[in-house]
Amino acid sequence: MSGIEKLKEITNVIESDEERAKFEKDFSLVPPCKPDAVVKPKTRDEVAEIVIACNDNNIPIFPASSKVHFNGGTIPRPSKTMPRPVGIIMDLSEMNTIERLNEDDMWGYLEPGVTWEQYANALKEKGYRTTMPLLPHAERSVVMDWLEREQSTIPMFEYSEQIGGMWVVWGLGEKFATGSASSNTFGQPGNYAAGVNPQGPGTIDFWRLLQGSQGTLGIVTKAVVKFERIPKIEKVYFIPAEELEDLVDPVYDILHRRVGYERFIVNNMTLATMLAESGDQILSLKEKLPPYVFIMIIGGLLRKPEMHIEYQEDYLKTTFKQRFPEANLVEKLEGAPGLEERLPEMLKNPWPKDKTYWKHMLKGNCQELVFMTTLEKAPEFCEVIAPIVKEYGYPLDQIGHYVQPLEEGRACQVTYSFYYSDDEKDKILKMYKALIPAVWEAGGFFNRPYEYIAQFVYPKAPDYTAYLMRVKKLFDPNMILSPGKLCFWV
Q: Is-above-0.85 flag for pTM?
């Protein structure tokens, strides 16, 4: 019996060209590659059985949690070292149960197929919201985005770790739970803790091991994810600026004093892309907006919300104004009438799935360059990328720029967005490959090393790469889980 026939005894195996084609490419610049088949497990036990069968039959597995992908992470690739098939996609999108919402501790228990739209709507019915990245795609997996180190628009320390524990199937099919759920804490069968402490009863942090490696060391089948109350009162403030560096000191002060919930910086191109109703409105809207703007939403939750708003506004209108008289703190943004009223609701929800995704509205595609740095160094990278972008003929004034502070200003995530049409793909790829070493040499840290970034950074650290290989072989001895996807070729 062939390996595929064995899998058919376990789960739903789809070999049609139509289904396989859904996974051969995504919105990235990574070359397409069609899988041999697609499997759709519905339970954790089924995932484990599939992994065991694939080990027995030397079949590579490429797990996919989301319905939408941007970085090539789920595109299969043929193995360089072993004569075997391309592999199968393990489509986890049908494992989409919200097992429970713990309202006492405000943790949601989600399977990997739960989307942002599904989770946001479920929470809204109970008076809660999820913290989320900036306008995520409605059909992206919540668990997958947090495992891939997406950053929340709320840069408060207590929201910096969005996942509290997870259930995983390792590369040989063993089932495991991280955190305090990983052991029988009280000594009674079945009496496991809730899994909200990543470190668990010991000192080994398996949560960190799995972050950024979903589908390469193991397959996460459930996670514990934070949620929050919906503020009773909210108010939006803006600080427009001509240059990014004009915002550094004022934003640091606001962050260090823990004022506001959502806090981030965007340039006029990114903001116009967020606000436009269609692609042909973006460039004209951009011209009406300030070059950069810091956006902040202050709010009051359950207890004494008016008092919470009052002391934050008192700081903004007295101490902050005295310290930064040149900072133009406003409640309405010129060029975007009514934004102060609709922005809070926008940021609580994913992008509507019945509309073209905002990053694709201008030209159909968007390639992002994402890295970490500190807020005071973020403006320096504008000078790093400008000459390279000019060399490749990309218009400087059409680059999206988004700076997301983390944990009251400990660091920030910087995103440059390059919008392009299908016939510009080759030029954008060459430019992107040229930008990677320039950002790295300027001190940018790539904490999400997809395909082309991995090809550049991992040869810079051969000992570290070899160590990662050894770790992968501990959890996936037969190298069947996303071979070549742990940031390097195998």
A: yes
